[in-house]
Amino acid sequence: MALTIEQVAQHNTQSSCWLIVKRRVYDVTSFLAEHPGGTKVILQFAGKDATTAYESIHPLSFLDEYLSKDKHLGSIDLDDSAPAGADGQVKKTKDMRRVELERKRKPPINRMLSSADIEDVAMRVLPRKARSYYASGGDDGISLRENVRAFSRFFFKPRVLRKVSQCDPSTTILGHKTSIPVYISFAGLAKLAHPNGDLNFTRSAGQTGIIQMVGTNPSFSHAEIAAARLTPQQPLFLQLYKNPDNEIAKRFVQRAEQLGYKAIFLTVDAPVLGNRETDIKAPFEEEDEEREGEPLPPQDEEVEAGGSEGGVASAFSKQDDADKTWEETIPWLRSITKLPIVVKGIQCVEDAVLAAEAGVDGIVLSNHGGRQLDYAPPSIETLHQLRLRHPEVFEKLEVFIDGGVRRGTDVLKALCLGAKAVGMGRPFNYANSAYGEAGVVKLIRIMEREIVTGMRLLGAARVSDLTPEMVMRVDFYSKL
Amino acid sequence: MALTIEQVAQHNTQSSCWLIVKRRVYDVTSFLAEHPGGTKVILQFAGKDATTAYESIHPLSFLDEYLSKDKHLGSIDLDDSAPAGADGQVKKTKDMRRVELERKRKPPINRMLSSADIEDVAMRVLPRKARSYYASGGDDGISLRENVRAFSRFFFKPRVLRKVSQCDPSTTILGHKTSIPVYISFAGLAKLAHPNGDLNFTRSAGQTGIIQMVGTNPSFSHAEIAAARLTPQQPLFLQLYKNPDNEIAKRFVQRAEQLGYKAIFLTVDAPVLGNRETDIKAPFEEEDEEREGEPLPPQDEEVEAGGSEGGVASAFSKQDDADKTWEETIPWLRSITKLPIVVKGIQCVEDAVLAAEAGVDGIVLSNHGGRQLDYAPPSIETLHQLRLRHPEVFEKLEVFIDGGVRRGTDVLKALCLGAKAVGMGRPFNYANSAYGEAGVVKLIRIMEREIVTGMRLLGAARVSDLTPEMVMRVDFYSKL
Amino acid sequence: MALTIEQVAQHNTQSSCWLIVKRRVYDVTSFLAEHPGGTKVILQFAGKDATTAYESIHPLSFLDEYLSKDKHLGSIDLDDSAPAGADGQVKKTKDMRRVELERKRKPPINRMLSSADIEDVAMRVLPRKARSYYASGGDDGISLRENVRAFSRFFFKPRVLRKVSQCDPSTTILGHKTSIPVYISFAGLAKLAHPNGDLNFTRSAGQTGIIQMVGTNPSFSHAEIAAARLTPQQPLFLQLYKNPDNEIAKRFVQRAEQLGYKAIFLTVDAPVLGNRETDIKAPFEEEDEEREGEPLPPQDEEVEAGGSEGGVASAFSKQDDADKTWEETIPWLRSITKLPIVVKGIQCVEDAVLAAEAGVDGIVLSNHGGRQLDYAPPSIETLHQLRLRHPEVFEKLEVFIDGGVRRGTDVLKALCLGAKAVGMGRPFNYANSAYGEAGVVKLIRIMEREIVTGMRLLGAARVSDLTPEMVMRVDFYSKL
Amino acid sequence: MALTIEQVAQHNTQSSCWLIVKRRVYDVTSFLAEHPGGTKVILQFAGKDATTAYESIHPLSFLDEYLSKDKHLGSIDLDDSAPAGADGQVKKTKDMRRVELERKRKPPINRMLSSADIEDVAMRVLPRKARSYYASGGDDGISLRENVRAFSRFFFKPRVLRKVSQCDPSTTILGHKTSIPVYISFAGLAKLAHPNGDLNFTRSAGQTGIIQMVGTNPSFSHAEIAAARLTPQQPLFLQLYKNPDNEIAKRFVQRAEQLGYKAIFLTVDAPVLGNRETDIKAPFEEEDEEREGEPLPPQDEEVEAGGSEGGVASAFSKQDDADKTWEETIPWLRSITKLPIVVKGIQCVEDAVLAAEAGVDGIVLSNHGGRQLDYAPPSIETLHQLRLRHPEVFEKLEVFIDGGVRRGTDVLKALCLGAKAVGMGRPFNYANSAYGEAGVVKLIRIMEREIVTGMRLLGAARVSDLTPEMVMRVDFYSKL
Lengths: 480, 480, 480, 480
Prior knowledge:
4 copies of one chain form a homotetramer.
Chain A: E1 2-3, H1 5-9, E2 18-21, E3 24-27, H2 40-43, E4 48-49, H3 51-55, H4 61-66, E5 72-76, H5 78-85, H6 94-105, H7 115-125, H8 128-135, H9 142-151, E6 154-156, E7 171-173, E8 176-178, E9 182-184, H10 199-208, E10 211-214, H11 222-227, E11 236-240, H12 246-259, E12 264-267, H13 277-290, H14 311-314, H15 329-336, E13 341-346, H16 349-358, E14 362-365, H17 379-389, H18 393-396, E15 398-402, H19 408-416, E16 421-424, H20 426-458, E17 471-473
Helix pairs in contact in A: 7-20, 8-13, 10-20, 19-20
Keywords (chains A, B, C, D): Flavoprotein, FMN, Heme, Iron, Metal-binding, Mitochondrion, Oxidoreductase
GO biological process, one term (chains A, B, C, D): lactate metabolic process
Cofactor (chains A, B, C, D): FMN; heme b
């Protein structure tokens, strides 16, 4: 059925809400309440073309998967639709012009020597909102920054006169071979970084022999990502935000298992979204920039305007079950899948012990990249405490950490303390933002080089040569 | 009796001192010696119109309460009085013009995401002297800043896989229900922030279900504040500076009890006023600004001019009994009131133990917002020491802390360590300064949201789920 | 005998060296080798008028005391002498003009609220060389700055509900009453600060009831200083740099005893002068400033010019016996004087114990204001260690400290830990530089006010109420 | 044989590679694979004049030593060669012009009061690439900076009333007398600092009575350096990078022994080169500077250009045996030489103990100047740990440290803790850069003066008076 832009425009309320995406019209009225990102973010496009906003978040296939066929109302006439919101017509904001200029100026990829170099480029070429989304942390960003700084409190005790001409940085994660002890963590909204979104991670991981962990709401569908693997043997892991409805959650997990995902990382540190102010403020700041510093129109100062707090992250707040428990959730998950189960988001020694008692296959010591509770401890500190107080846990399950890893030496510190591997999230998104797939590969190669150099200088020819005695926590340094 | 401006002008000495307030003339000669703020601050208006200065500090009703009727000399002719000092005629200083401009430019209240955002606005819209009064600390401001920084040395150990979909941040203070574990501390001179002064706190507390503590010298009378409550059940607490004269003190306490105040917070950390240099310097700086950097007139450098040190706080130094003791004061206070007694200003574990032995109902660990003795310890540190060394004290009385609380996480750290609730003073004055009553409500809502989010991310569904094991004091961080 | 300027000019070598001081001619050839400040500093004036340089260091009476009458060659004709070097003819350097301007601009003394305020003024009004001399420390100034910062690691544990309306800060030092537990340390070269030099300290101490310690080479003679006392009872102490020649040293000590000095502070931390680079560099910098940044004339870069390292301090390096010992020097000193003996410059607990064993009457824990060995410990830290490890020492002798004291709270921390009193040196020189005698009195009054306020807020009505339990060394703060 | 520039130009590939050095032509084709600095760095000069690049690294004699006579093809005509690459013809870069200007402006040597003063001059007068080489550290430069900062955590406990008028700072190293407990460490590429390169160290060491350690690849041949000694008795030490080929290594060591070198310092902390990004980036930055900020030409952003990572250090990466072991290498070395063996690059207490067990004559606690593994511990900290945990090691061998030594007090701290002497590398290169041989002598004199002053102020008349009790590790300071 062919529809006109005027027809669509009349369905612009909560009672009847139509959207245009890619010149097709959808009735999303009944879906409003179910939208993981909330009702409001959809309603702002009610009766309009939502293509740009939609594409920056979701795979197109989601509309087919989640919306019944009778809600697919038909297509719209090209000429009418275009003016309503097609990208080509959008007046460029200052930020858009800044990004265009920075993209032209960026240095060649072969000048990238470290993850910091790549992050610097990404910070320049990313649109403000995307940058704010990636970079934001909870509250004042204390945990965000401590994640990085904490590594600087661990110094090495390198050993000399050991044979290191042959040095092998490979290991396994849950039985799957990886060329270096690093996996790609899911950081969300990968299309904000690059049009190919998560697929660039899949391909890069395949090329370099490392493993990608895919989120619950990636930028392409789980099937598309699975299909992007270089070989069917290339392992993928699934990071699970468990739906409060066990049936929905069960279907989701089993579908992933069928698609070939090899492990479930159950997220436990995000029953509610953290308070990410940088992210929330980004649109205000962009708006102010456009006004060129002109004051806002006058207002009644004593009356609160009724705020639309949110930010990109809020538009994406997950349908995560806030009532998961050790007693119920772990056995349930074990009952619906044969995949190894990893609990992601452990933040203290006591819960690591509980995880071992619960018989899970692994844990990720993580504070969610400093995006959830501010003043949650950096995972390298929690790892250190676990090593000191409950070394037996490392015998019972595989321990991973994420958050703040930037250098090969960071990886090596974690491995010395007993981690099996470390996850990196933001750095890969920055690499994708700056140089796409080539950037992700470049970053993996940089990490590999740094890890191998570090192992040799530590006197370790194999990953198993890395021991707790090789690191010490010092009182004397904090990276500034 | 109608008086002329010339008649009043003749009574401009310590022997005969008349003032005009709101076009009425008062003979305050006999009151000079009793004035809590000292003689000098009154004498500068002897024979003149003191309306502006008076109104910025005192409730009008005080003149009726404290000055006998025969000292009310009559009214003054409007035309004569106005030129002598009415506000409309005052030449605007640079600072006044700055404030006017900043008030126009301030962001809408719905952009306020945190107490820091609100403080930023307040710092811009407050007159210099008011800002200096609120922001000042003792000596070099070490305790002032440490109050805030100290919280950053306490990190969380969040627990996962606990049911937190239902989360209740309410608790009780001395038996009175409060929607969140925060009460409004008295910070003084609230009219400098907003014409409605303390009344805005009363109304906001009523709306949001929290409790206000009112000072000994509020900007409206204790009766006016009691009358501003939304319901007669809304609790108010009284912060007491005990007069050296027991009879005066007794009448004051019993009057408050009759007015419906529900607890006495006896101030013990201010037998003399701290050395608040920022406050004292503010008028000099304003004067310099007016002169536009022109040097002061020449002077005989070797001879001290005889300084009038003071500042806003000095004009208000209290008639506080410097000889209070555990042995005499507490039993005396118990003997004159049935209200619960809380000792406010405990700064070490030893005195907390003495308080428990003295049988008081509560203590506030406080260094008076860093305004008294510099290098007094931040109260979160004292709380931590009390938890470690004398946990039994928490069973014997209610422990509160104040000073440096800015975030929901600060509140939660205190509660984990055993505090029943925390007081916030400056932040509420800043909210009042920036947005009046709406600002105070906004800040309470922000705190509530941060507390609830934090509880969920800690794995706590109720305030009683917050335990000492959930926080750790770290060696590795100080907020910069 | 009347001499001409031409005659004098011929005696400009080490073999025959004449100087003009105050229009009188002296033959100092035989004195060259004995000059405590070295030969070079005199030779630069050989055959010339040295009045200005001489007066900025020495009392005029020294020429009479140290140079036999036959070396007083006579006076010089006024007209001839003046052009050769009288002040009026000196072309003003940039620094002189800067100082003149700053002196006109300085704020009135009644704006001075703290020692820091006074130091700020002094830093502006002092000539560069004088400022460099006063402010300089050894090597990199680590001990210099740590002296101040160290106090910030000691926090209070104030006690409440104690009677403090009556508060008495007076105490005794070696049996002599002092109005506050502070004495004036000798910092040297007081005439650089003010023409009245040390005499301003004598008069101010007399006025305020505190005690002055006078150095071995003060700016006025020991007799002149003794004569400047307000009453014969006003105590003075002597800081002794012991001459290597016991006979000279003996005469010096006994003369002071006859003049009425009441104690000997034997300096033990300066067998050689510390490396004060700021001081040495000051003349270079001034020279560069005069050249307005023009490069120095070309030079042969590979050949060292043969440096005249020095600085103001070097011109004054003392004839101090570098071979003093506990075994020989203390008994010897005891044998030649009945005055109490205080060892000044103790820097570790072990030497404090040795001092007690040696039976001296007191010790000053001091690192010489950070001017000698860099990385010598701040005295408040040494005091703290002494309290922890050898509290019995405080029973055997009086313990003083100096270095870094700026606030009343600093004084109170030292007293809590067991010090009998504290010395302040630089701050008094700064006060003298900025406002002369009135400035010194002002600083004493400021200290008194801060000490009394601090005692009251600590819950101490007398100096003896200050106890070790009232301070704690913290890990959490360093003043920035 | 006379060759033309055109003939040489044809041999510009890996298959046939000719170079011109000093107007002589060499066929280095067969040597390409053996070049310690790698093939690429030579190939960029294939068929061209490599004089400038060659001379900045190697002694001329190396071509005679390492290249058989039949590869010396003959000389080239002067007129033809000059235009191809002689220095006089090179267009000056901005950096060259900056250096010329700075060299004219530099202060006279007698203004140099400390090693920091000299370093400041060197930083200004050095070409960018040389500066980057000298100053660079591994990764983020944490160990680089900690090497310096670590000393600031050690404070002194000076002793007083000890005889120090006679003070002797001399000691022995491996039985050889040295005037102060400092030796010259090898820092590489000394010709970048001064045309006389390492020879300036040899002559300065001879003049001042200290000892030079010469590297494996110095800027002049080992024979030339030996010949530059002031007397045949002047000791030299050899720092050995052991060739993987034992025969080559043996010949090298034995040749040095014959030349009169007195000890072998076996390098063990550099089996691979550290990641020195500053060094690698220097040429990029210079290139950017030349382009005056113009953007690089456009490029396909998704394709990596295939990087030529490297830097000056990379051009010099050593043929170091990465499979050395305690079990094999030490006995082998002992078997081929009678010289004392020192293991250089020990970074933990455990390896110091192994060294003692292996019977070597000495160890250097060193992290290679922070140029190898980042987060390797500063050697003063390792020394402190060794003193605390294995004091018996100091009885079995001589312990040296290097890295971060800048002041006499740094040397004294190390000696107090048990070091026999300390090595200084960069500071001597900076002295050579700034003032050549005179600069090196100046620095040694500065160190001597600081050491003697420090010893006297510590109460130590001889090196053996320096004891562990004289230093303490503090928690309270880090140099900023």
